[in-house]
Amino acid sequence: MKNQFSRAVGAHEERKLKARRQSLKSIWFGLGMFGLVGWSVAVPTLLGAWLGAKLDQHYPGPHSYTLALLLIGLAVGLVNAWHWINAESQES
Question: What integer pLDDT is reported at residue 52 of this predicted model?
Answer without folding.
Answer: 96
